[in-house]
Amino acid sequence: MEISGIYLALGLFGLTLIAGIYYKVSSGSGRAVQRSQPIDLAELAAHKNGFLVKQLGKHATLLQFSTEYCGQCPGVRRALAQIEYRSGGVLHAEVDLTDRLDLAAKFNISQTPTVFILNSRGEVTFRVSGVPKPGVIQQELAKLGIK
Question: Positive or negative, the Cα torsion across 52, 54, 56, 58?
Fold first, then answer.
């Protein structure tokens, strides 16, 4: 009986270890989105520097979903603002999900930060859950023809 308990504990430890490794590897790397309905920034109450954003970026929009209690969101906000500054025609906007669980459910967001890359038509082309790994956002913007 004791040996089966040890095997059970080792099995649970192994599953936890595998899940942790999978999370670490997949978090921040993102995935392409095949088909998407255009997103209306005004409807989401997206903001930038305290002001509502109503129009998309000329070439792309980096849409960050955050919460008030997200410890990693300010760093991602700064990184995306730098990309916006360096890349012409790219807009960075943010949506606070703290009191908007409806949006979290609608877009299947289970962690913050989550970043969507929208093309010029407002369609999601790529999404990253967690802190984007270095170069991921720039690589996806390059696929949209943005340097």
Answer: negative
Mean pLDDT taken over the chain: 86
Burial of 22 (C-beta count, 10 Å sphere; 0-12/13-18/19+):
exposed
In which element (H, E) is residue 84 found? helix 73-86
Q: Which amino acid, one-letter code, is at 54?
A: K
CA distance 8 to 98: 39
Note the pLDDT tens digit of each residue in 66-117: 999 999 999 999 999 999 999 989 999 999 999 999 999 999 999 999 999 9
What residues does 48 pair with on adjacent strands? 51
